[in-house]
Q: What sequence folds into this?
């Protein structure tokens, strides 16, 4: 692929079960990553958009957290069912307002 | 911290010893992450710049790989000694030309 136009970061960080913060790993971060990669391929976006797994992106209690760069757009509580809308953003549409990380202090 | 102005991604992905690609984890990715966090704090940049560890960012043979967003600037073969120059970029300076990922096909 050429240098990616966009980079999507999917937190897959795991904390031990019972941790009060929870973690994106516990909430399905890896499955989200796998599904997003598949969708990008299906839509021919995989040569324009890079998707990477990360360790903690903060906001653990609002996971799974997904960040889109260079947009600096942060999504909270993303479910697999939300991914087609996020793909529309990645295809050049507007960010998905209802999934935006609330404007709370960053941990 | 408020929403970060910049996000620095440091690959710490490890492959088994002897893997022909090598890995950023093997080449000191974690130490780089730790040192960068310290430098950002020392310079009062830790409230403006977020630094995160990632799994594979590609270009394993040219690791450790560091990406700066939303600049979409990618650095290859970063050593701890290079971090002050990268901090100058993060403070608003120009990207560090000599560390830029060469324009080769993205894996």
A:
């Amino acid at each position: 692929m050429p240098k990616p136009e966009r980079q999507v970061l999917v937190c897959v960080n795991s904390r031990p079960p019972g941790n009060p913060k929870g973690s994106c790993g516990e909430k399905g971060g890896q499955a989200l990553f796998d599904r997003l990669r598949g969708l990008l391929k299906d839509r021919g976006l995989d040569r324009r958009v890079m998707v990477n797994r990360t360790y903690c992106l903060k906001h653990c209690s609002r996971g799974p957290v997904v960040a889109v760069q260079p947009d600096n757009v942060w999504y909270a509580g993303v479910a697999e069912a939300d991914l087609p809308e996020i793909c529309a953003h990645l295809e050049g549409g507007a960010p998905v307002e209802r999934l935006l990380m609330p404007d709370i202090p960053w941990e």
Remarks:
- Chain A has two helices and four strands.
